From TrEMBL:
Keyword Cytoplasm on entry: yes
Protein name as it appears in the record: Adenine phosphoribosyltransferase
Domain of life: Bacteria
Pathway terms, separated by semicolons: Purine metabolism; AMP biosynthesis via salvage pathway; AMP from adenine: step 1/1
Pfam families from the UniProt entry: Pribosyltran
Organism: Sphingobium indicum (strain DSM 16413 / CCM 7287 / MTCC 6362 / UT26 / NBRC 101211 / UT26S)
Gene this chain is encoded by: apt
Residue stretches making up the Phosphoribosyltransferase domain: 54-148
Keywords: Cytoplasm, Glycosyltransferase, Purine salvage, Transferase
Amino acid sequence: MRAKMSADSLAALVRTIPDFPKPGIQFRDITTLLADAAGLAELVERMAAAARPLDPAFIAGIEARGFILGAALAHALGVGFVPVRKKGKLPGKTVGIDYVLEYGTDRLELHEGQIPDGARVVLVDDLIATGGTALAAAQLIREQGATVLMALFAIDLPDLGGMAALEADGVASAAIIAFEGH
C-alpha cells in the first residue's frame, strides 16, 4: 500500500518558473507533479475524494492540462469525460462561448449534444487564477442544460480571486493545493 502524501509534499512537486509568461509572474508548472507517479496518484485520489460524493455523470476538462487531470479523474470515478476545447479544435458541430481575457477575447467549445440536458458535471482544470476561463466553461456547460456541481482544480492562486468569482457565480469550487501570490 502506498503512503499518503501531504498537501505540502504535493506542492513541493510543482515547479515555479519566475517571470513566465511575463515579468513578475510566478508560473506554477504542474508538469513536474504529473511526472511523479506517487504525486499524480495522490492528486487524482484527492480530486476523486472531492468529486465522488457529488455523483457526477461527467467530468469536463478544460484545455489543455485539464484534459490530463479530468481524464484521470473520470477514469477513477467510472464516468465519462468531455473536453472543453479552444475554438476550432473539435471536428463536427460545436456549441461555444466567447469570453474576455486580459488582452482580448477567446472562445471555448464543446461538441453539440455531448453533455445531455440535466447531466451532472464536475469541471476540472489544473489551475485557477482569475477564473475567466473556468467561468466561461461553467456557463457553456449550463447553457447545455447541465448542472455544474463543482469546479475542481489541482492548484488555486487565491490572491487572484478566481475561486471567489466562481462561488459568486454560484459554482462551488475546490482546489487541492494553494500558492500565495501570482
